[in-house]
Each structure stands twice: as structure tokens, then as C-alpha cells.
Specification:
Radius of gyration: 19 Å
Strand content: 35-45%
Number of strands: 15
Order of helices and strands: HEEHEEEEEEHEEEEEEE
Helix content: under 10%
Largest sheet: 13 strands, antiparallel
Number of helices: 3
Distance between the termini: 46 Å
Length: about 270
């Protein structure tokens, strides 16, 4: 039986600043654990080390190598604890080798201006859109999401813009907290796929998520969709960037993301001679 997301990302404290985690096969991409899922696991350990009262505001993860299935160790250090803000590092290893490195900022609530110039795109409600059908050979992590495609062009057809988005949510509802949001920020199809005319996959080099709302939100129940909007402006030398936004249906900006990723062409099988 597949574990709900909150249980699937739970870490086990094994000592001061040390947490154990066992990777399985349910949340894999093409080269190892899904990047957003791995970010969520690291954030669980960071939250546990800092303790309550300080919510994630920023998370950056560098993916050094794909972890293998099995045991891993996460070493968390509160690099500095200020009056309201904690700066935290996390290092995930297997067999003594670094698999992922993360830095986070967790903060108590602060007073300040409340303004925004960001505007959510106008799209149909998720209930008015058909669920996106499963793609052939899609990675296993995609089975955990309900996708409703709403923005952008066709995949691998060489469109004129790297832009894609739609509504998404977990198939197994859980409270939407910061680790869930971190995973959602990396759960949509890469925007570059609407710009290129060949099949590819896109391993993430680094992912940054800025949490722009204090969670939990009353309007964001466990079964609620969020709108993801993703775009890219540059690809060169095998690397490309992606900017993302996550919105509630009421038009509240939930999170912003940015990542650097590779673009790796999927080999086309040679045809047999006839």
C-alpha cells in the first residue's frame, strides 16, 4: 500500500542533528528519487531540527547525485539562530557520499507591508478541466498527482515559447504544508518540453523554493488544487532554467520557484531493416 505523502516523507531522528531516511521506489523519476520529493524529505528534517514556531521561507537544494533505494543519513545543522530567523543546512549522504545539499531559512512571523504586483493567469477551474491522461513511460512519481492541463503548447512539438501549467494536487489528500508545496513546485512537466522538438528528460541541478504564504491556509484544504505556472527563457550547453509560481484558486501567490536543470535527449531506437 502506498503511504500518504506526509508519512512517505517522514524522517527518523537517530541522534543530535542526525536523521535516517529509507528511499523506496514509489517516488522515483528516471534517474532516482523525484527532486521535489527529495526536497520535501530534507525540509522535514530541517523543520524537526529547528522546532515549532519558525516556518520555512526559503529552501535551496543542490542535487549532487541520485540516491539509490535504501538507507540514507541526513545531517542537519542550525548554522545560526537569530531572534526570529534560523539559517539551516542539511546534507544527505549514502555510504559517506554526498547525494544532496540544502540550505533553508525558517522564520517566526514578522510585521511588514502586504502588497503584490503578481497576477494569476486566467484559466478554467480545475473542475471544468478533464484530468490529464497518463503519458506512456511516465516516471512513477507522476502517478501520485492529479493533473489538469490549462496552459502552454504541446510537448516535444517545437512550440514558440517554453511555457506550461495547470492545476495539480496529490491523489492521496494530506494537509498542505511547506514540504508538500516544495514537492508541488517541481511536480509539473518541464516547461522546456513545449519548446523543443525532440523527446528528452530534465534532471534538476538545483531547486529554490520561496514560500510566500504562511501555512497552513484555511482556504487550502487537503483536497484542494493549486495552479502551477512555469516558464523558461534560456537553454544553452545542455543547461536550462525554469521559473515557477504556485497559486491558490482565490489568486493568492503560494510559492515561487526557480531551478537549473539539464536537458538530456532520449535516444531514438534504430529501426530494423526490412
Amino acid at each position: 500500500m502506498t503511504l500518504p505523502f506526509d508519512q512517505a516523507t517522514a524522517v527518523q531522528r537517530v541522534g543530535g542533528g542526525r536523521y535516517g531516511y529509507v528511499f523506496g521506489g514509489e517516488w522515483t523519476g528516471l534517474r532516482g528519487p523525484h527532486g521535489g520529493f527529495l526536497a520535501a524529505v530534507l525540509l522535514r528534517a530541517m523543520e524537526a531540527e529547528v522546532g515549532p514556531g519558525r516556518a520555512p521561507r526559503s529552501l535551496t537544494v543542490h542535487f549532487a547525485a541520485p540516491p539509490a533505494a535504501g538507507h540514507s543519513l541526513i545531517e542537519v545543522r542550525e548554522e545560526r539562530r537569530g531572534g526570529r530567523l534560523s539559517t539551516v543546512s542539511a546534507r544527505l549522504t549514502q555510504g559517506g557520499q554526498a547525494m544532496a545539499l540544502a540550505l533553508g531559512a525558517l522564520s517566526a512571523p514578522r510585521e511588514g507591508p502586504d502588497l503584490t504586483d503578481a497576477v494569476m493567469p486566467e484559466v478554467p477551474l480545475p473542475e471544468d478541466l478533464a484530468p490529464t491522461p497518463d503519458r506512456p513511460h511516465q516516471p512513477r512519481f507522476a502517478d501520485h498527482f492529479d493533473y489538469r492541463y490549462a496552459l502552454g503548447g504541446r510537448v516535444f512539438h517545437g512550440g514558440d515559447r517554453a511555457y506550461s501549467g495547470g492545476w495539480l494536487r496529490l491523489r492521496q489528500p494530506v494537509p498542505i504544508d511547506a514540504p508538500v508545496v516544495a514537492c508541488l513546485a517541481d511536480a509539473w512537466m518541464p516547461a522546456l518540453f513545449t519548446r523543443i522538438d525532440f523527446r528528452a528528460y530534465a534532471p534538476t541541478i538545483d531547486l529554490t523554493v520561496h514560500f510566500r504564504a504562511q501555512l497552513p491556509l484555511a482556504e487550502l484544504g487537503p483536497e484542494e488544487f493549486v495552479l502551477g505556472v512555469f516558464s523558461s527563457k534560456r537553454a544553452e550547453g545542455g543547461f536550462w532554467e525554469e521559473d515557477g509560481e504556485l497559486w491558490t484558486r482565490s489568486g493568492r501567490l503560494l510559492a515561487q520557484s526557480r531551478q537549473l536543470a539539464l536537458v538530456v535527449r532520449v535516444p531514438v531506437p534504430a529501426r530494423r531493416g526490412g
